[in-house]
Amino acid sequence: MGCGTGLELGYYFELVPSAEVTGIDLAPGMLEALRNKFPDKNMTLILGSYFDVPFGENSFDVAVSVESLHHFTVEEKIRLYEKLLKALKPGGSFILTDYFAKSDEEECFRRAELLRLKKEQNISDDTFYHYDTPLTVEHEIEALNKAGFSSVSVLNSWGPTSVLKAIE
Ligand SMILES: C[S@@+](CC[C@H](N)C(=O)[O-])C[C@H]1O[C@@H](n2cnc3c(N)ncnc32)[C@H](O)[C@@H]1O
User: Fold this and answer.
1) Is residue 80 lining ligand 1, measured as CB closer than 6 Å?
2) Would you tell me how many other CB atoms lie within 10 Å of the CB of residue 15?
3) Phi, psi at residue 35, to the nearest 5°?
4) Structure confidence by residue, pLDDT tens digits, 51-110
5) Bridge partners, residue 161, by sequence
6) Which residue has the least CA distance to atom 14 on ligand 1?
7) How far, in Å, is the centroid of ligand 1 from the Cα of 4?
8) Tens digits of per-residue pLDDT, 127-156?
9) What are the residue boundaries of the structural domains of the chain, listed by start?
10) Ligand 1: which of 25, 79, 127 to mutate, judged by most atoms within 8 Å of the beta carbon?
11) Is 3.30.70.260 the CATH classification of the domain at 57-167?
12) Which atom of ligand 1 is found nearest the CA of 50?
């Protein structure tokens, strides 16, 4: 979800060279670069928002998102994660790498700041405005649990970045 040019995909192909990959991104240029990077791989690239694109049911062994989900509210994420959970095969997993707020205060401050900036510029609530509003790791885990993932663990952390693994 939000595959961009697939910076991390080379590592996944080293693990499973024959992997069938579906990538979703809003940016056509990113998808074109990704296609050109791996011309011989089995990739379905979808131009669109992961909030709108249907994921199907029981379709994927693993879902991956890297540095793409730090703009959205808990409510938006829970709905997305519910859709994702249905799309995973039994025992499938979701690997989320993103950067996270260091504290509840930072999370609240950034959300309030986004609303302030939108108001100041007369931008409606439902219009996307590029300002980072990461959750804390704890709140991200809560959102994944609320969506129905059975267990969520933190695989790695460095600076504000963490890698979470959520199991179907
Ligand atoms: C910082 S880039 C990371 C790209 C890639 N995951 C990587 O690590 O190289 C974030 C990507 O998420 C995509 N993105 C943001 N919101 C999206 C959405 N709602 N649906 C699909 N892609 C989205 C952007 O177009 C961008 O390519």
Assistant:
1) no
2) 7
3) -60, -45
4) 999 999 999 999 999 999 999 999 999 999 999 999 999 999 999 999 999 999 999 999
5) 99, 158
6) 2
7) 5
8) 888 999 999 999 999 999 999 999 999 999
9) 1-53, 57-167
10) 25
11) no
12) 20
